[in-house]
Amino acid sequence: MSTQPAMVNRYRWYELIGIYAGILAFLTFILAPFVEGFLVSLKPLSQLFSSPYRFIPQNGSFEAYRTMWVSVPGFARYIFNSFLISTIVTAVVLTLVVPAAYAFARFKFKGSGHLLGAFLAVNMFSGAVLLIPLFRLMRSFGVLNTYFAIIVPGVAFLIPSAIWLLRTYMMRIPKELDEAAFVDGASHFYTLRRVILPIAMPGITVVAITTFIGSYAQQFIYALTFNSKTEYAPLPVGLFAYFGRQEVIWNELMAASFVGIAPAMIVIFFLQRYLVSGLTAGAVKQ
Amino acid sequence: MFQTVTASLARLIGRAAPKGSLFFYEWAASPAAGDSFLGQLNLKKVQKSYGTFEVLKGIELEVRNGEFVVFVGPSGCGKSTLLRMIAGLDETSSGDIMIDGKRVNDLPPVKRGIAMVFQSYALYPHMTVFENIAFPLRVEKMAEDKLKAKVENAARILHLDQRLQQKPGMLSGGQRQRVAIGRAIVREPKIFLFDEPLSNLDAALRADMRIELAKLHRQLKATMIYVTHDQVEAMTMADRIVVLNAGEIAQTGAPLELYHKPANTFVAGFIGNPKMNMLPVVCKSVGPGGVEVEYQGQSATIPVEVRGGLVGQPLTLGIRPEHIQFGAADLVMKITPSVIERLGAHTVAYAALNGEGENFCAMLPGSAAIRTEETVSVGVNAADCHLFDTEGIAIERRVELTDVDMGLLKAGAV
Asked: Fewer Cβ within 10 Å of end Cβ, chain B: N or C?
């Protein structure tokens, strides 16, 4: 076998230049803020407002990564909170969504189409629109200033997209597998547990990752509204601690942002191992 | 006595030549046996409709214990639907499905005592071959040692012993199909259902699997119902063939019975390859020797069971391509072949007869000296011809089939 790419993937030299130039332009737009953020975290505070502005830090150091823990002592707690909230949200979403997606993918029942449409409609409302009614609801239940107040709306707003994602994945699992299990005497739950769940693992992983990231990102708004206690504050709220009365400690803020993302990155790398393709190979003749 | 056989069924699995086989055959074929049998299936006026569209129109069928019955028909004739209804995957609109004299319409598949092999294999890709075969036993929570013995036994029958720890993705098509069959046999069902199990295999493998399945049937002695659109599979494996056409049973009978005495033009055209030629003829007279028909100035007396009201009627003469020969015969035709297929053993010639649209097809010896666009004269003997009335219903042939063992025509003979 030659190492040449397949015929459909062969391009002329000017096409290749065009492709890579395009990739470069897009990547610059996406990655520039991250690069700049990282460079800022390396600079001493005084250099940030120097004129003319220099992108490359002079005598840069990782000093901010040490001082950030000192200037905001509760920072570890904020990371833990974020992590805890996202983990619980993901776990709850998965336990609810897996059977629901299976039902939507396999059973024909009255109103299933409308229900799916309703889920999509819920997704169209941003959580922000519903903040005030949610706040009143939380207050009358007396759950303000608890983890519960941040977790429940998070779960509610992440379920619709998770159901849509997983339903689509499960519909691609051949129906004959369910029928074969049914003929062999397996109940729906047995089939779900022993047959569908293992095969749907890549799909479930994708849902888990998107839910975890989604929860990590959206908890800010709920935490800000429904919680005023510092010990329950998650990372995005915690970052405000670097906004001092006089000035913003930008370099530490950037350092804290990068450190705060780290646990989420680790979880995603861990989950990625389950993203194996071709898991259904040999199930049915395609 | 029957209980003994029932109990020994499990032990029979895996033995190439069970001792009681002769007895078993007599027992299965005995007409007086009634319906106390294990693995007997009765369909009573079974109907299926989707909305106003009737897929199956009142199917009446009796499948005896130990029989290998093949449902065959063109696609869309309802054969798969019928199988799925017997399996309990599709609901029955009306009528009764009886297994061993018990109405099973509302029972789930397991309670019916059936096992099904799907066209697409439907293997669980994340499980090993062992776990795939063991799945039905795991569902019924069988003890581990008993389960292991059963799975290994099934694997031995199907020559999968070496593959037990592999995943289905690593197996070939034929092996996957055998795993699917293994999953069916471990449960020791009363009735096996096969839904076009070989249609995904290539031609050579299909021929091998056909033989394997026929062997398996002899080994297990279980009732098997097999759905296919391939008449070769039907002819080679079946004890009895059920030909379905547009939701109705066109004919039921042993393979050779269908070949020699098709009940109507549909069955005549469907069974046999290449297709039977149908020629329009007119009935001239009816005599003790059969029906005298006229075809393009020639007349021949076809030996069929005579009935009244035929004289003057337009009839259809059926001629199988393999009965056409060179030279003198009762009916002679001049054909100019437009396409000739040389298969080695045979030569198949296609010609438009008298400018008619339909291809006239003749199967001649392998070394037949014919060329395209060169007119030859071929003929057919009256005794080989089939005759159908205006409705397409066969006028029964007087079978003078000296070369056919009449015992083979009896349904159920293995």
From this structure: N
